[in-house]
Amino acid sequence: xxxxxxxxxxxxxxxxxxxxxxxxxxxxxxxxxxxxxxxxxxxxxxxxxxxxxxxxxxxxxxxxxxxxxxxxxxxxxxxxxxxxxxxxxxxxxxxxxxxxxxxxxxxxxxxxxxxxxxxxxxxxxxxxxxxxxxxxxxxxxxxxxxxxxxxxxxxxxxxxxxxxxxxxxxxxxxxxxxxxxxxxxxxxxxxxxxxxx
Length: 197
Description:
Helices cover about 40% and strands about 25% of the residues. The protein has seven helices and eleven strands.
């Protein structure tokens, strides 16, 4: 979702700076605000008892995150953490709902965004249940490429091997080993440690 910055500011949204690694909210917190990234990137993730992480999504400049609980009076199912230094607009839940009533076209934007996210979650879950690491990695790479609007040419994948592992529920060693095998088979290119697919 991307609400116009001028609309956010005119309705009292506050821009807040976060340093890399800062938490914006924690799993289990009450949902009271609409958040939209102005600069940098944010990851939504879960940590288990051993400190392992599972990344639900990474959100860049212009994207919003953490909205579903706003609409159903639930707490956050994951935490949000600054992936880089970032600036985030924060708008109260009450003001967001007022805007949605005043501008009905925004309601359709939210519905469309929620539908996209549900579809992507369903596709991601299909990949996660695969016992084959390569299937999971290929699914992840294809989704990224589709999101970028790329067709046949190979593009750079901006995620680290660790981030990919955290997205896919794999060990980083497994991701590295699988990507090396995929490179040998000509399925990916690795040039100066950068991954292309």
